[in-house]
Known about the structure:
α11 (about 230-240) runs antiparallel to α12. The protein has helices spanning about 10-15, 30-35, 85-90, 110-120, 135-145, 155-165, 175-185, 190-200, 205, 210, 230-240, 245-255, 275, 280-285, 290-310, 315-325, 330-345, 360-370, 375-380, 385-409; strands at about 1-5, 25, 40, 50, 55-60, 60-65, 75-80, 100, 105, 120, 150. The protein is of the alpha+beta class.
Amino acid sequence: MQIYKVGGAVRDRLLGKPVTDIDWVVVGASTEEMLAKGYRPVGADFPVFLHPKSGEEYALARTERKSGRGYGGFTFHASPEVTLEEDLIRRDLTINAMAEDDHGQLTDPYHGQRDLEARLLRHVSPAFTEDPLRVLRVARFAARYAGLGFTVAPETLELMRQLSESGELEALTAERSWKEISRALMEDQPQVFIQVLRDCGALKVLIPEIEALFGVPQPEAHHPEIDSGVHTLSVLEQAALHKQPLTVRWACLLHDLGKGLTPESQWPQHIAHEHKGLKLIKAVNERFKAPRDCQELALLVGEYHTHGHRALELRPSTLLELLQSFDVYRRPQRFEEFINACEMDARGRKGLEQRSYPQADYLRGAATAARTVVVQPLLEQGFKGPELGEALKRERLKALKAYKEAASA
Length: 409
Ligand code: ATP
Ligand code: MG
């Protein structure tokens, strides 16, 4: 049997990028031989094994054939006769279809190296269209390598367009889609992920609520970029530049969905878009079964981001309501993420990326002020039950009034 390094490990070494996980392909071996050597099978009918010591993935060389709709609709053929070239041709991109033996000798039948140099994400064969997940994968690689100058080859974008129009994207499960989306959002340029999905017509299938933002104007005085979709991409870009976590990036992506619902007659104003957007945010959250913390933050940022921007003008009672809505006493981190999402929203405006955002520290200070109110003295005064709650609120309001006065002095 011969063993080769394949996929991302080869690609990233040639790009001079750090290699984290290594995938291996085994040619000329049978399942029985692998088991005899102590490899542990990963799936029941899927020819992938874990190395007895390193735990890395070793896949038997295989061919694939489409046999139905969606990701499950594949039949695999793995046998000792399958060649390396036959295994590589089933892969998605040429830059992912190179193999390297233990002498560092490269096998590159589909010209991955040429495409690395040309900075092109190009499909290996027309069988690309057999797996809709590849639309998301290619968009994700585009987000990851945009900084190096990579773009999607026009022929590949065309295949992605065909896949998007075929209805196959709908066959993806929430779990598989979310895995790609969440990884893509954590790349260096997540806005490129959304842009590529849009370019190939996948965005209007997967997240039509975001597609709907393009072409919707906002008031130029506050939003020099005007277009709501362009704004959303910039907010996401800022979130990545500022190294925000997934929760914040997800919230940034969805914060303005309500603007897509505004009747044209009201443009460029978007009255109550925060509240109107909530049902859309909920729908997108549920479509991809986003994790709970992502779902929650997206809804809260959707509802309250304008409060964040107006923080310095808010009455103490409104500030208090905001803090209560976030349960800032028990969930300080979530409020901090809200503040950061608001700041990314403010920075995601053309020409205003560097403008300071004093609202952030003001909100942090307000949270601290409200949190300094302690329960113990109130208990000692004999408050309990709902009355205790009311007394706490009164004290916090007092603290916030003092805070606001001190801040404006
Ligand atoms: P990463 O750095 O994200 O791990 P990777 O290229 O190693 O990138 P993996 O998901 O680990 O990606 O997959 C390993 C290899 O398997 C890929 O390089 C590609 O050759 C192939 N591959 C994975 N998923 C698909 C797919 N859906 N269609 C075709 N080929 C795929
Ligand atoms: Mg990998």
